[in-house]
Structure formats: structure tokens, C-alpha cells
Amino acid sequence: MAIAEHPSAYPARRPDRLGAAIARQGTAFWVAAALLLLMPLLVSSFWLVQILAYAMILGMIALSLMFLAGYGGIVSLVQMTVAALAGYVVAIFGHSAITQISLGWPWWAAVIVAVLIATAFGTLSGALSVRTEGIYTIMITLAIASAFYYLTLQNYTVFNGFSGFNGITPPVFLGVDWGENIPFYYLVLGCSALACWAVVYVARAPFGLALQGTRDNPRRMAALGFDVTAHKIAAYAFASALAAFAGVLLVWYQRQISPGTGGVGPVVDILIIAVVGGLSRPIGPFIGALVYVLLRTFSLDLLEWVGLDGKRFQLLIGLGFLVIVLFSPDGLIGIWRRITERARRSREARAAQMRIGGDAPGGTP
Length: 365
Description:
The chain is mainly alpha-helical. It has one domain (7-286). The chain has helices spanning 18-23, 27-42, 45-72, 79-93, 107-129, 135-154, 181-204, 206-216, 218-223, 228-254, 264-277, 284-305, 313-327, 331-359, and strands spanning 165-166, 172-173, 176-177, 256-257. GO terms for molecular function: branched-chain amino acid transmembrane transporter activity. It comes from Xanthobacter tagetidis.
């Protein structure tokens, strides 16, 4: 059965235009957007690239996982592997210091091939895992990620083994060197904003609404005539495309790619980032990524400042994430939602008291 063969079964809601969606945003959205646009004037190059740009790249990869888990109910551990594969393809088909392997294609051709191959790989991984649920899906995708790690580690003909590739530089395009700090920051910021908009648009489209239906009640959706498996595979394809684009940005940020980029540790880190940020909103993975990068960057100095062994910085990161998840199963987004909801109820209660006081005899009219 085709994915969209029964349009009448979809809810009446249709994708909103980009302008209308932006117009509905509140003050916090515009303040955050202005700060991000003005950030090169406010912070140093270290904060601009090593913290913010890196956090947004990880956030894009985690966003692909958030789309699968939040809208499709699919927990996949292969998203970082898709990003790493895209980075490897950019190095193999494009330019790097390993000239005996790299083919030297133009940067745009290498990027197109990287996105296509990585998306196809992620889609195939989804096709192998969508017929399972829960822990079985996690184990299959983890097995695929582990297999890719050992393949890149042991293969020297194509992936250059343990050393990987270095000397991978961002392109010079339209007279701009996108490897410079400020242009690269704006490149990552633009791609992140586009990825967020794409997820919001697809989630509100008929396909996204049907995907959420398969998450909530797959048997009922199948009874209505929807191909549940096809919807999940298509979700993998869309999420893999997001992760592939993020992988290209990641290899340009690191200027190198190695097996450790797609190792089990980074694979699990993406899951942690998505969960800590929150799986209910597209902004959640970016918040989780920022917290992760800040903890990873400054926890070593913090431990040494208090007189503890700096080698235990991973413990501090784990404890921080554990505290967040314990207080809010929906991550930082859930905490923010509860705070704003409590503030809204407090305002409504005060307004009601004022109305009651004004209506009472002798009260202020």
C-alpha cells in the first residue's frame, strides 16, 4: 500500500507556510534568533566555533534521532554512523592530505555523493530494523554502528584504517572562505535553522501526521490501510539525510575523520544528547548538545579547580545528565515547559483574584 494512498484518513491539519510559522513565535524566539545572529560580535572565536558551532552540528545529528524517536517512536543508534559515513565519503571523493586515496573531486560533487550514499546507508539500516521494536531495534542499529566502526578501523585500502583522513578543509565558494571562523559559524547556523524548519514542516505534513499515528497505534493505522513499515523506512530516509548533512559539517569542523568519529562512545553520546535535551521539540537536541559540549569542555578544569582528579571528568558529565533525566523525563525542554506553565497559572490566578476583588462590594472597579 502506498504511503499516502488514503489522504482522507489524515487529519485536516496541513503544513503551515514558513512565514506564518515564524510570525506565531513569541518573544523568546526572536531574542534567541537575534543573539545567535549577533554572536560573532559578542563572543570570542573559541566560543563561536569550538562551543556554539560544534554544539549545533551535534544538535543536527541528535535532531535526526529526535525525529525518529519523537515522531516515529523509533530509537536508532545508527545516526552518528550515518554522519561519520558522510564525512568519510567527503574525504574519499574530495580533497585530503591522504592523496593516494582521495580522488580530488570538486567539493560540491563530493558533498552530493556523500549525502546520497549516507542517506542510502541509513535507509537500508532502517529497512533492516523497522520490523523489530524496543530493545531489538536498539541492538540491531548498535550492531550496525559497531560493524562500521571496525570496518573503518581495519580497512586501509578505502578508509585508511586507524589513521583515517586529515587535511580536509571547507570550500571557498562565492568568494568566501567557509573555513574561517565567522563564515563557518553562519554556515552551521543556517543549516541548523533549515534542519529545524524541515523537521517541523514534515511533522505537520500528512506523512508526519501518519508517522505519529503509527507511533501511537500501528495496528489501527494498518487497519486504515497505511503501510506502517513503509512510513518507518521513509522516516529513516529523512532522518539519515539530516544526519548526512551534519556529517559533512562535522568533517569540515574537525578537518579530519577517523574511526573514533563513529565509535560506540559517540553513538551513545548522540542518544544522551537527544534524551537530555528532550524528544518532544526540535529545539531539544540543540539544547542537549550545548549542555554536553559545555560539560565536556569545562568539566576537566572544574574538577581540577576543586582538587579532584581531572581524569574523572566523564563521571561529572554522567552525573549531570543523570540529574537532568531524573528531574525531568522529557529533558530540559520538560523542565522549561513546567516552569512556564507554572508561571502562566500564577498569572492567571492573580488576574482572577483581581477580578474577584474588583467585583466585590467596595472593591476597585
